[in-house]
Amino acid sequence: MSRFLNSCFLAASLLGPGLASLHAASNEALKVKVPFEFLVDGQKMPAGEYRVQPYSESGLVMIQDATGHHSTVAFTTPTGPFNGSADPSLIFSQKGSDRVLSRVQFLGQPARAINGR
Known about the structure:
The protein has no helices and eleven strands. The protein is mostly beta strands and about 120 residues long. The protein has one domain (about 10-115).
């Protein structure tokens, strides 16, 4: 992760309790500290530091923790027209007792919904 420069500090948008902090590393990657366990496409991810980046032009997004022990690739779809004003963010929803990553917003790109199983 040292090859990515942090250009600014942003608060993550959350639906439900908790707080995640974001650093816009580039137009294509986010460095994220998530202080709670969460699900991505049915896979449990522990609290920690993550790198979130587009994995392919077809909508895949890679989410990998700083230790390299936990990673997943999730398929995403655009959530609507791009207005150019949204800050990079991760959006979590509460489903029962679980927090679920539901959307990703990269700098300069439309928000993308995580497609769950």
